[in-house]
Amino acid sequence: MVALVMVATLGWSQSDAKAKKILDEVSAKTKEIKSMSASFVFSMVNEEMDIDETNAGTIKIKGQKYCVQLPDLGVEVFSNGETIWNYMKDGNQVTISNIDDESSELMDPSSLFSIYERGFRSEFVEEKTEGGKTLYHINLFPDSDSYDVTKIEVAIDKAKMMIHSATLHSTDGNQYGILVKEMDTNAGFNDSEFVFNAANHADVEIIDFR
């Protein structure tokens, strides 16, 4: 979830330049972080289907490697930067696939802070105080239909210059939201933490799409 400008006609306004400046600063700051962990709230909303769900989760990121855990949903996602493992506790099943397309990149949390540099344009919306925090609100629009999204709304914590929340509007009508609760930018992880270990899941069904 993450970056740049709106429709390109009269769109390269001063506000667009402001959005780019903010995003560039966030990107530069996060690129200095070797690894991080965070707790967050994940939401999915679809008004047409009367769906409104929220679930707590955690994430670990090290370079392009990541591990996402959503305990209430029984979902674990691992990636070592080349391969993605999606494990579903309900059914004890894991699917394995390669990271080889733009859609995979969009779902890669490690690209959250830089995806706007390739394929998205931004529009500065407003600066607003919410819950005692001053946030920059920026809307991101894809340059092409390569991504299955129509818009990404990003809120940046002005004091920390880190992403506070993001909402992805999918072409299928779903809205996926992430609200960061706590973040540790000094976390250290072993590479093995970003690979699914079948030995930890007896009789797991493995579906390999590679």
Automatic annotation (TrEMBL):
<dbReference type="InterPro" id="IPR029046">
    <property type="entry name" value="LolA/LolB/LppX"/>
</dbReference>
<keyword id="KW-0449">Lipoprotein</keyword>
<protein>
    <submittedName>
        <fullName>Outer membrane lipoprotein-sorting protein</fullName>
    </submittedName>
</protein>
<dbReference type="InterPro" id="IPR004564">
    <property type="entry name" value="OM_lipoprot_carrier_LolA-like"/>
</dbReference>
<dbReference type="Pfam" id="PF03548">
    <property type="entry name" value="LolA"/>
</dbReference>
<keyword id="KW-0732">Signal</keyword>
